[in-house]
């Protein structure tokens, strides 16, 4: 009897001293839990100290060390973090804080045991490719991605989970192995099994916690040396690459945005990371940068699906540099479609039921723009220097005066999209026609697409592949087989020669069993590099949509780079390029003029922007210091008209708005006593485009006698000059100085070869 009693005591002692897989509660009442074989997981004298820890999570005067030992033969095996806190904290608090802060660290938790949650698995991104997620069994159709660092399960099925990236640390188990939990307080000589679990473990200042995986439930000695984890730094430099706005996985997760770096790496869910796991609305179909803000448009406000992300609404405004949320709106009048900035104070929201005003300055959704609510859903909208052009599903092309927010003209026809080209011309696309719309007179010229079609996507609206180059006077799009089936070719239209190339480039991945197909807007052009960015997914439905590629083509149509995204149902909506540069005003715009009659200064080529369409820059008169001396207006031809009224001097301030970025120029206007009779004098001198890639143009009313080009060191350059055009295609990148001698003056200007 005594012998049996001692055996019972020994059994209970071992049971309560075993290393537990408990992370939130105390020991769960389940017979599958296997006792650790020893009270103390032997540990040599610890060589790692608090001073060695590099990555600290939390703040406070107390500190603890958190270590994980995978015992999987991969380097580095045993890792350590630091945790700081004030007041009282538990082992669970520490585990979850580190999971949330370090995006490389992930876990599988079972929430629902009698006494709390169990830690079924722990993983770490060893190779830095950021593929963080789990497969359950052989189900590759529905991968599981962590929220706040962990995936939940509702059963003791830990053995069935494996990491998506097999090169990562990952250990899980319930039958074949298990995670054991050990602690050491400052007064302890060695680690001992924590019988209360992580939620019952009250941390002490200078305590240590170790999660130690036991393969086949054989508890291995705790390492004497832990490798300090380097701090996790999420990329915040969103300047050297481009954004991919995603519809995301309907019913599971709301819209998201990734940033694809020029070096090929990808930062996923950058908005959610910056905003405590908040997302956009449901099916984020459009995004654009205007000024310093990023405007994300979703079709609906929130999903009824089971998700751990918090929805942000149909319109979300974020800081374009940091992704920090500025505002979110569930109600924007109807389901979202698009957005365009009109001026520094106002934007237009395209919806399924018309265009709504948006107060940028005060962040408020305004009223429906009169006349736009009866034309069906609104698609793409563009802002030229004078007007807003908007396509609708059933009401043709709307032309709006942004100064008065008035619909001034409608061009009938079934349009799919609209763009403005480098030369300032406006183009709409129909099933098998390009429609050229004069940007100021609105006259229409049609160009039939020879053999292919562009059939759009009004059914499940997206922004479409119709796009333009800011460096070359050309348009591009992807051909279509039907409204629901894309073709395989990128088509190019040369605006200058009015010629089509329907085989400019071929979509990759057409020889495999399952083909690559474009999704969403699919095709956009980098305004700086002039590279074409094409996103594709895989046909075949289901799990095939987890496969996503981003291809880069040069201006000749040659494929230069392919990036493969992490497997997931991203459903990319559109590519958006960062707006890094501000507009630059040429010094050919005079700082002072003398006028005796109405004088016109052409502003069309006075201002440029390296990462936006220069032709679309909005010019306005900000102020006139003395309206009794001179009046100043900008006409529909982007010309400044100065009309003297009486003798005197006044300062006219011109504002240039390039995609929401502003620059101003002051002109001192001197009026003479001998006022004219209404004849116009035109002051004109322009060196454009600037920056330039191929041909630099000189425009002046004077006769050009001599032109000399110098590099930045002052050395003259042998330049080919003909008809006031200079071929600079062979010049090295950099700044140059041009000296122009005319029959009336000597001009010195600077230009940049890009």
UniProtKB/TrEMBL annotation:
Residues 687-752 form the Secretion system C-terminal sorting domain. The keyword Cell inner membrane does not apply. Keywords: Signal. The keyword Signal applies. Gene3D superfamilies: YVTN repeat-like/Quinoprotein amine dehydrogenase. InterPro entries: DUF5074 (IPR031815), Secre_tail (IPR026444), WD40/YVTN_repeat-like_dom_sf (IPR015943). Residues 1-23 form the signal peptide. NCBIfam families: Por_Secre_tail (TIGR04183). This is DUF5074 domain-containing protein. The lineage of its organism: Bacteria, Pseudomonadati, Bacteroidota, Flavobacteriia, Flavobacteriales.
């Amino acid at each position: 009897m005594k012998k049996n009693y001692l055996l019972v005591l020994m059994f209970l002692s071992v049971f309560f001293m075993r290393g537990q897989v408990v992370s939130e509660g105390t020991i769960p009442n389940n017979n599958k839990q296997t006792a650790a074989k020893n009270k103390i997981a032997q540990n040599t004298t610890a060589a790692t100290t608090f001073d060695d820890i590099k990555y600290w999570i939390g703040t406070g005067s107390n500190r603890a060390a958190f270590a994980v030992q995978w015992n999987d033969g991969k380097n580095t095996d045993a890792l350590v973090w630091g945790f700081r806190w004030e007041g009282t904290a538990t082992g669970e608090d520490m585990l979850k804080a580190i999971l949330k802060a370090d995006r490389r660290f992930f876990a599988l938790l079972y929430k629902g045991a009698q006494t709390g949650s169990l830690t079924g698995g722990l993983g770490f991104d060893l190779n830095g490719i950021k593929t963080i997620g789990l497969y359950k069994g052989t189900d590759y159709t529905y991968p599981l991605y962590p929220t706040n660092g962990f995936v939940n399960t509702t059963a003791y099925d830990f053995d069935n989970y494996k990491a998506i990236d097999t090169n990562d640390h990952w250990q899980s188990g319930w039958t074949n192995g298990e995670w054991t939990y050990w602690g050491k307080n400052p007064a302890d000589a060695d680690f001992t099994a924590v019988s209360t679990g992580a939620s019952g473990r009250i941390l002490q200042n200078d305590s240590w916690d170790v999660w130690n995986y036991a393969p086949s439930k054989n508890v291995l000695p705790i390492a004497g040396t832990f490798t300090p984890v380097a701090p996790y730094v999420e990329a915040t430099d969103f300047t050297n690459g481009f954004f991919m706005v995603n519809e995301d996985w309907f019913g599971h997760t709301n819209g998201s945005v990734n940033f694809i770096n020029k070096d090929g790496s990808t930062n996923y869910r950058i908005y959610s990371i910056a905003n405590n796991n908040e997302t956009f609305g449901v099916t984020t179909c459009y995004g654009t940068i205007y000024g310093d803000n990023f405007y994300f448009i979703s079709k609906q406000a929130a999903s009824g699906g089971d998700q751990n992300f918090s929805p942000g609404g149909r319109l979300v405004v974020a800081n374009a540099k940091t992704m920090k949320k500025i505002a979110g709106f569930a109600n924007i009048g109807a389901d979202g479609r698009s957005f365009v900035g009109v001026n520094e104070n106002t934007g237009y929201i395209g919806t399924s039921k018309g265009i709504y005003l948006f107060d940028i300055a005060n962040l408020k959704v305004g009223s429906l723009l009169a006349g736009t609510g009866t034309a069906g859903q609104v698609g793409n909208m563009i802002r030229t220097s004078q007007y807003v052009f908007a396509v609708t599903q059933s009401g043709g092309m709307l032309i709006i005066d942004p100064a008065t927010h008035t619909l001034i003209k409608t061009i009938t026809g079934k349009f799919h999209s609209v763009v403005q080209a480098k030369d300032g011309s406006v183009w709409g696309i129909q099933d098998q026609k390009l429609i050229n719309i004069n940007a100021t007179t609105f006259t229409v010229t049609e160009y039939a697409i020879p053999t292919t079609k562009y059939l759009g996507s009004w059914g499940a609206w997206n922004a479409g592949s119709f796009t333009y180059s800011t460096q070359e006077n050309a348009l591009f799009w992807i051909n279509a087989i039907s409204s629901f089936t894309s073709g395989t070719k990128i088509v190019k239209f040369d605006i200058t020669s009015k010629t089509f190339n329907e085989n400019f480039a071929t979509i990759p991945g057409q020889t495999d069993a399952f083909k690559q197909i474009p999704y969403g807007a699919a095709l956009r052009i980098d305004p700086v590099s002039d590279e074409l960015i094409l996103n594709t997914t895989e046909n075949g439905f289901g799990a095939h949509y987890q496969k996503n590629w981003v291809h880069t083509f040069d201006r000749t149509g040659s494929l230069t780079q392919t990036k493969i995204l992490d497997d997931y149902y991203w459903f990319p909506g559109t590519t958006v390029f960062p707006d890094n540069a501000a507009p630059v005003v040429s010094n050919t715009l005079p700082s002072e003029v003398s006028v005796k009659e109405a004088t016109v200064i052409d502003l069309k080529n006075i201002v440029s922007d390296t990462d936006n369409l220069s032709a679309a820059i909005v010019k306005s008169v900000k102020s006139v210091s003395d309206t009794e001396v001179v009046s100043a207006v900008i006409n529909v031809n982007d010309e400044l008209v100065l009309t003297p009224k009486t003798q005197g001097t006044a300062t006219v301030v011109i504002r240039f708005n390039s995609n929401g970025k502003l620059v101003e120029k002051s002109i001192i206007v001197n009026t003479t006593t001998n006022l004219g009779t209404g004849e116009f004098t035109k002051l004109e001198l322009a060196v454009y485009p600037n920056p330039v890639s191929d041909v630099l143009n000189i425009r002046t009313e004077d006769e050009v006698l001599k032109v000399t080009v110098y590099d930045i060191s002052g050395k003259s350059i042998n330049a080919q000059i003909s008809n006031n055009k200079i071929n600079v295609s062979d010049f090295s990148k950099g700044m140059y100085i041009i000296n122009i001698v005319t029959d009336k003056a000597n001009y010195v200007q600077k230009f940049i070869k890009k």
